[in-house]
Amino acid sequence: MRRTFPDVTAVQLPELRPGRFPRRVPVRRILCLLPLLLVTVVAVRHRAVLAEGFGHLATAEWPWLLAAAGATCLTWVAAAFTRQGAVVERLPRRRLLATQFAAGAANHLLPTGLGASAVNLRFMTVCGLPPARSAAALALYLLAETVGRLTLLGALLLAFPDALRPGTLVPGAALGPLLLGAGAALAVAAAVLVSVRRLRTAAVSFLRTALGEARSVHTRPARALALWGGSFAFPALQAAGLVLVGRALELPVPPAHMAVAYLAATVAVALIPTPGGLGSVEAALVVALVAAGGPATVATAVVLAFRIITVWLPLLPGALTLGALVRLRVI
Fold first, then answer.
1. What angle, rounded to 10 degrees, do the helices at 62-85 and 131-159 form?
2. Among 59, 105, 54, 161, which residue's Cα sits nearest to residue 278?
3. What residue spans of the chain are helical by DSSP H?
4. H-helix or E-strand containing 164?
5. Lowest mean pLDDT among 209-218, 240-249, 285-294
6. How many other C-beta atoms lie within 10 A of the C-beta of residue 131?
7. What is the pLDDT, as a whole number, of residue 8?
8. 313: which strand partners?
9. Residue 111 three-state SS
10. How far is Cα 211 from Cα 255, in angstroms, rounded to an integer?
11. What torsion, rounded to 10 degrees, do the Cα atoms 309, 313, 319, 321 define?
């Protein structure tokens, strides 16, 4: 008997709809939510510090605290001026200011300097600057901010030589090994650059680009004024915030000495790779304020309240701003 088979062309296959398969989650959406996750993790890890800091804020004089909050807000404006002064091209002002606010949050979620540097590098690249020039502008900004901080510290130490006792932040016994380690690291880096041709070529190219960018910026007085004015205003406003919090909690230390303590502490912990200096900055600030003549209990309260205002309160809105900038493709 002859067998017959159904016509396969007549068989109707089920319609394949996109909704039946799971959609791929965009990477950009994950990046938008990542800052909020990091904020949650950091807040849970430092919940005891947060509770104690908010407790000290409740006993402080609010007019001084509001002034400290205002000084903190002005630091983002100063950072925006410095960033604009590091490039010849005009950057969009509102986006630049929002980026500095978001970069502050990123800086406290990643090892010191990496978060803000990555955000600003991406922002300048999106604005149309080539990667080499963006990196050169970032290096110029870091150099100007370092020079401004060290110059302010040196000027205050010359004006108030008794503001800090020698050896309070870096003990004399540890100074020799610290300098020896720094020298060894520099020697190793120099040897690697000399021996590896590709690295040497890349370093020379980057240095040439950075010097050209610096010359171009300084040929325009408005850019040079923004660069150096912002680089001096940024650490000065940070120190002013600590002074105002100290006044709010009645710390018996002269304002100039508190400013010296802040600048010296931040310089001392600049090379410690902790997220935004969390932990290291607090310890160094307490030691510096005690060395300036403040009681340890009051100095601890001032430092915790200061970090609440400058770090923890802006952290959540900064993370939300960072996610929004990623979603809007500003960075």
1. 130
2. 105
3. 27-45, 47-58, 62-85, 93-109, 114-126, 131-159, 172-195, 197-218, 221-248, 255-268, 280-291, 296-307, 313-327
4. none
5. 285-294
6. 10
7. 47
8. none
9. strand
10. 38
11. -90
pLDDT at 14 over 90: no
Judge whether 248 and 61 are in contact, CB under 8 Å.
yes
Find the Cα–Cα–Cα–Cα dihedral 233, 235, 237, 238, rounded to 10°.
160
Name the maximum alpha-carbon separation found in the chain: 114
Through-space distance between the first and last CA atoms of the chain, rounded to whole angstroms: 74
Residue 73 binned pLDDT confidence (cut-offs 50, 70, 90): very high
| Bridge partner list, 275 | 111
Q: What's residue 312's pLDDT?
A: 84
Q: Write down the pLDDT at residue 61.
A: 86
Looking at residue 241, its pLDDT comes to 95
Cα angle 163, 165, 171 (rounded to 5 degrees) comes to 140
Taking a C-beta distance cutoff of 8 angstroms, is the pair 99, 267 a contact?
no
Domain residue limits, the chain: 31-38+46-172+187-327
Q: Is the predicted pLDDT of residue 67 greater than 90, yes or no?
A: yes
